[in-house]
Each structure stands twice: as structure tokens, then as C-alpha cells.
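Input (structure):
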């Protein structure tokens, strides 16, 4: 009832309702535009780390039943408000990640009732790192015209697009000779591991010489790809190949890859 001097009105009915709450926050991470083949990640909860240039799709649900008119929602990041799309109880927003930031999700229903201050979520922008590359061999003592087997590993956060092996031969009194062999995958891969069969005969090696082997991987970053190189692996030429050696039988410059 409302009473003022001799006047009185009522009774009036007051309905007590809960403030709307934000729940089920999740983030979908789409890779940068230059790596459309990289996998999409789903992250439950609003905290996320992603490579700069990725697109974030932030979604949540509001517990408050929608009224006759739609409410409004936004991401509050410092003093900046980023509007969210409201579809019933579903809230969503898309952001191109450039720098790290923090945010809260806020909601205001059609009656002007707002959600309480929620969790402060953290988004960390990561640099696109160069590929990590490793090269090894079970035996580093080789013959002059041998086909050697090297074990290679290359991995990148978005994908390895190019993989080459650089061979440099040198020895006492001889001039350095180089050779590059291409082992690039048909399509970019996040990780490559396997055996490389490398023919040494084209280097025209002599006993006492060495061959330095370096595996070079390039990622998919554009406009300029990033490179990663293995630690040089040195092969020592300790003997001549037997006369029966057949180049045709050992011409197998390929890789048996395990791809992930």
C-alpha cells in the first residue's frame, strides 16, 4: 500500500526475481587467415591463449528467462564495451585477436535488471613461433657413395609447409660442395617425423671429408614465412664405397613420414 497524508492506494503486488547470471562461457579459436587448414580449438571457460591473428568466438548463456523484449549484452574490457549478439538466452561475440586483454560479460534485461559483476577472464595473444626441427643418425661414419638414413622431426604451432635438407661437403684441400634435397609435404602438417634416405654419390666424396647436414623447415606464416633449422649433423667419410655400388638401386630421395 502507498499512503500519503489522507490518501491511500493499494494493495500492490511486488514480484521478487533473481538477477540474471552469466553461465556456460566458452571460446572457439579459429586459426589466423593464413592458416585455414589448422585445427579449430574449443576452450571451455572464458580464459584462453591463442596465436595473434586468430579469431575468437566467445559464447555464453544467461540464466534469466528472456522477456517480451530482448535484453542487451556486452564484453567489458577496461573502459571498452564490445557488443554481444543476444538470441534468447544465448550470447555471442567475435573478436580478431591482436593483443592480450581481459574482459567480463555483462547482461541487462528489458526491465533494466543487470547481471552481477562476473569473472574477469584473461585472453593471451601468443606469437606465431618458428618451427622446431631436429636431425639425427644412428651412424655418422659413411662411405663415399652411400645412401644414408637420417631421422628427422619438424613441428610447428600452425603447420610446416616446406622442408629441405642442406648438405655441405668439405675436406682437406677440396672445395666445398653443396646439395639441397626437398622433402616438403604435399600439404602443411603440424608435425612430421620419419626417415630420410639421402644419396651422397652426387657430392663426389673422398675419404677424410665431412658432410654437414642441416634440416630447414618453413611455417605457413604470411607474408614472410618463419624458418627453423636443426643443429648441424656431421657425417665423416671413412671409406670408399665398394665397386659393386649401384646408384640406380639407391636412388630414393624420399621420406616415410609419420604425420600428425
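Output (sequence):
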Amino acid at each position: 500500500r502507498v499512503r500519503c497524508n489522507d490518501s491511500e492506494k493499494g494493495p500492490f503486488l511486488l514480484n521478487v526475481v533473481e538477477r540474471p547470471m552469466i553461465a556456460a562461457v566458452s571460446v572457439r579459436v579459429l586459426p589466423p587467415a593464413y592458416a585455414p587448414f589448422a585445427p579449430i580449438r574449443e576452450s571451455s571457460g572464458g580464459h584462453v591463449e591463442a596465436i595473434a591473428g586468430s579469431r575468437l568466438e566467445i559464447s555464453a548463456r544467461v540464466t534469466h528467462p528472456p522477456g517480451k523484449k530482448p535484453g542487451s549484452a556486452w564484453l567489458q574490457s577496461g573502459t571498452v564495451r564490445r557488443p554481444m549478439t543476444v538470441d534468447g538466452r544465448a550470447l555471442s561475440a567475435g573478436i580478431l585477436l591482436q593483443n592480450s586483454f581481459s574482459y567480463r560479460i555483462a547482461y541487462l534485461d528489458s526491465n533494466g535488471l543487470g547481471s552481477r559483476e562476473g569473472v574477469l577472464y584473461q585472453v593471451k595473444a601468443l606469437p606465431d613461433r618458428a618451427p622446431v626441427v631436429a636431425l639425427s643418425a644412428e651412424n655418422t661414419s659413411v662411405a663415399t657413395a652411400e645412401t644414408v638414413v637420417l631421422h628427422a622431426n619438424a613441428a610447428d604451432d600452425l603447420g610446416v609447409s616446406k622442408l629441405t635438407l642442406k648438405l655441405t661437403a668439405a675436406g682437406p684441400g677440396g672445395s666445398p660442395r653443396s646439395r639441397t634435397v626437398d622433402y616438403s609435404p604435399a600439404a602443411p602438417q603440424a608435425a612430421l617425423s620419419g626417415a630420410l634416405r639421402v644419396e651422397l654419390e652426387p657430392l663426389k666424396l673422398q675419404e677424410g671429408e665431412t658432410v654437414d647436414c642441416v634440416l630447414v623447415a618453413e611455417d605457413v606464416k604470411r607474408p614472410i614465412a618463419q624458418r627453423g633449422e636443426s643443429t648441424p649433423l656431421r657425417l665423416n667419410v671413412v671409406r670408399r664405397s665398394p665397386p659393386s655400388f649401384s646408384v640406380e638401386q639407391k636412388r630414393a630421395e624420399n621420406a616415410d613420414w609419420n604425420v600428425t
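Notes: The CA atoms of residues 27 and 58 lie 5 Å apart. Confidence is low (pLDDT under 50) at residues 244-253.
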